[in-house]
Amino acid sequence: MDLTAQAILEPLLTTFSVEVIRYLIAVFLVITAIFFITKRGRSRNLHTEPATAEQKRREVFYSILTALVFSVNGLYVYFGMQGGWALVYEDINLYPAWYLPICLIAMIIAHDAYFYWTHRLIHHRFLFRWVHHTHHRSIKPTAWAAYAFAPGEAFINGLFVPIWVTFVPTYEFVAFFFLAHMILRNAIGHSGYELFPIRMPGSKAFGWVTNVFHHDLHHRDIGENNFGLYFTWWDRWMGTEHPEYTQIVEKQKQARLEIPAS
Ligand SMILES: [Zn+2]
Ligand SMILES: [Zn+2]
Q1: Separation CA 161–CA 167 (nearest Å)
Q2: Residue 186 C-alpha to ligand 1 middle, in angstroms?
Q3: Looking at residues 235-251, what average pLDDT do you find?
């Protein structure tokens, strides 16, 4: 295996560029969606005041730094594919077609569990200040905060894919779609605009999916509840769902009001 400076720098810079572009596209899509929803006169803003330029600059800075940390983690996958210890495959026919969606769904569900438990861990008082405080500096986050993590938190978050591909054969485009979904959900979840149905928390059909309000509550209370990422499962199983999450929706249903902003 070639481990010269150039052999390391080239994939590092390529992955870094892809991560940054992916981040910018996701934020652009979310901001565009908010623009059109607002234009149609629908009040879905969860925050009463716009974020300051200083907050947005900080969110962008740490998100770019996270992209760099993810790229370092990505080197494990890159060299692992050459060395045979990362089970990312390029031949789509290696496994049956049904394996592709199953693998993607399993990867998203596993990541949700990984995120929930590592998120709870970094809220521990011994870790919070050094690892997770940076992310919670945004009490009312914007989409730019999608990757606004301190390097330690970025490293923990970025470990999921290397661990997954060490054990589970994953087609390269499945990994690509997983990462696209991850950044998009992160950008949506921090946007401060309800881009999902407002009544979702109490819905029998879709109550298992977190909406924007779910993670927004986590930031408002600096992380006492709502540790989950994509789904409400773990918070409901572990009793960590914010008490207001479904109550406010019930009130809203009765009063036909929008979710109260803060
Ligand atoms: Zn957050
Ligand atoms: Zn948190």
Answers
A1: 10
A2: 8
A3: 86
